[in-house]
Design brief:
25% of the residues lie in helices and 20% in strands. It has helices spanning 22-25, 28-44, 57-71, 75-79, 123-126, 143-169, 250-255; strands at 17-19, 47-51, 91-93, 109-114, 186-193, 206-209, 215-220, 225-228, 234-236, 243-248, 265-267, 273-281, 288-289, 307-308. A hairpin with a 5-residue loop joins strand 8 (225-228) and strand 9 (234-236). Bound molecules: 2-oxoglutaric acid (AKG) and fe (ii) ion. Fe (ii) ion (FE2) binds at residues 209, 211, 216, 265.
Length: 313
């Protein structure tokens, strides 16, 4: 039996940084090479970084700025947009919201969640599919315009990376992305705080978890994100404003029959304030996520039970 300690240990500098610039316009050989780099990183670690050529850094900055303005509002103003009143998980998540993860010793973040912005009279929304439908928009000049623009850009980047992973997995074009026409993908604006009284350096601000969706494209301006290695060590993800941190989520692990790995991560924030913006690339609400038959070896059973993409909402 191969001893697990003989496996190479991913270290900080081992989180690959992949330039996906040619994924849109490069020739086929170049696109194939990038897809293979992304796929190998997704298979071995489940975490990698990409240079986000294509998204205007000013737009990223403007999105942080407007998020910061929102989080700086007095509590009663933010509570007007409380997510608990939204039928489709949109709006403000206060500091007091109960955390899902057991090791969240000092859960001290607030968030604003939004998704595909469909009108009130959208037929799916009207017929009771409450996950679809309109966003909650704060009454804050520039918020809707800026954040909508960012959502559109990041959603396109998500599709691009998914398309490359289709290629890596040897699936026909559209095998994943055709199930993302009205996805339940969410953008989360996150604001962590740490008071000077919090001296416990071990405090975990967002507990260990895997992401539920296909993949996550995260931009952050502050350190704090940690990834678990195969030998159960936490390593820090470096901060690089020109890069997105990408990780595979549970949906894609199942869809790929375990070839791509959904890896645990957590946030230990040591700064007075920390901002990040994960975008969770998901499938459509009604997509049945089950291992693609061509990714199951002949004579073997699929490694996962099927589930509906929208089931956990
Ligand atoms: O804030 C971060 O860096 C990570 C956030 C995260 O993992 C999540 O929201 O699922
Ligand atoms: Fe996460």
């Amino acid at each position: 039996m191969a001893a697990s300690f003989l496996k190479p240990k991913p270290a900080v500098h081992d989180l690959p940084l992949i330039d996906i610039g040619d994924l849109r316009h490069g020739d086929t050989a170049r696109k194939r090479r990038i897809a293979s780099e992304l796929g190998e990183a997704a298979r071995e670690i489940g975490f990698f970084r990409i240079h986000h050529r294509g998204i205007d850094p000013n737009l990223i900055e403007a999105t942080y700025r407007i998020a910061q303005q929102f989080f700086a509002l007095p509590d009663p103003a933010k509570q007007r947009y409380y997510i608990g009143r939204s039928p489709n998980h949109r709006g403000y998540v206060p500091f007091t919201e109960k955390g899902d993860y057991p090791d969240e010793v000092h859960r001290n973040y607030e968030a604003f969640d939004l998704g595909l912005d469909l009108p009130q009279d959208d037929p799916d929304f009207l017929s009771g599919n409450l996950v679809l439908g309109p966003n909650v928009w704060p009454d804050l000049a520039g918020f809707k315009e800026t954040v909508s623009r960012y959502y559109t850009e990041i959603a396109a980047l998500g599709r691009l990376v998914c398309g490359a992973l289709e290629r890596y997995l040897g699936l026909p074009p559209g095998a994943l992305t055709d199930h993302m026409s009205r996805p339940i993908s969410q953008l989360r604006l996150l604001h962590y705080v740490r008071t000077s009284q919090t001296t416990d350096r071990k405090s975990v601000n967002m507990g260990a978890h895997t992401d539920y969706e296909c993949l996550t494209l995260l931009h952050t301006r502050n350190e704090g994100l940690q990834v678990m290695t195969q030998d159960n060590r936490w390593i820090d993800v470096p901060v690089d404003h020109s890069a997105y941190v990408v990780n595979i989520g549970d949906m894609l692990e199942v869809w790929s029959n375990g070839i791509l790995k959904s890896t645990p991560h957590r946030v230990v924030n040591l700064n007075p304030e920390r901002f990040s913006m994960p975008y969770f690339v998901a499938a459509n609400h009604d997509t049945l996520i089950r291992p693609f038959p061509r990714l199951v070896r002949i004579g073997e059973q699929p490694k996962y039970e099927p589930f509906l993409a929208g089931a956990h909402l």
